[in-house]
Amino acid sequence: MISSTAFDYINILDRAADASWLREATIANNIANATTPDFKRYDVDFQSLLQMELTDSKYNQNLDEKVHNAHLNHLVATAQLDTSAESFSYRKDENNVDIHTENVELAGEQIRYQALTDSITQDFQRMKAAISK
Predict the structure, then answer these.
(1) What b/e string do you get for 3-30 counting C-beta neighbours within 10 Å, with b at 16 or more?
(2) What is the pLDDT of residues 1-30, one digit of tens each?
(3) Dihedral in degrees, nearest 10, Cα atoms 88, 93, 95, 100
(4) Distance, first Cα to last Cα, the chain
């Protein structure tokens, strides 16, 4: 992680990309276990954690940079597996993975990850252009 206020936005995008990758891996695991009896789908709830962190950071603008980076690291670490749909199952084998829903979620997460990595690349390109002028 780069420690400079010029890179704060990139650091947040970096952590968001990490969480997106984690969610993508979790969805892929759900798809892989779509035919496993008694398997319950998992999901990664990162958006609500990010929203809480961004809201808190508005009120804590004077936080030390090390504390701020620790909060960002904590976000990815606490993007836990959400098992809220654990008791729900519409199949006889008690598996609650809907392959069509998972494929849609995976496609959406791949688009989100691509957008995040594109944003990071564009920010570095803008910095490079500013330095070279």
Answers:
(1) eeeebbebbbbbbbbbbbbbbbebbeeb
(2) 455 566 777 888 888 888 889 889 999 999
(3) -100
(4) 26
Question: How far is it, in rounded angstroms, from Cα 70 to Cα 32?
Answer: 33
Give the pLDDT score at 16: 83
Neighbours of 68 (CB within 10 A): 19
> What CA–CA distance (Å, rounded) separates 127 from 116?
17
In whole angstroms, give the CA distance from residue 51 to residue 57.
10
Cβ burial of 69 (10 Å; 0-12, 13-18, 19+) is middle
* Of 52, 27, 42, 29, nearest in space to 84 by CA: 42
Which range has the worst mean pLDDT, 2-6, 37-41, 122-126?
2-6
Per residue in 69-98, pLDDT (tens digit) is: 555 555 555 555 555 555 666 788 888 889
Give the position of tokens 């199949």: 91
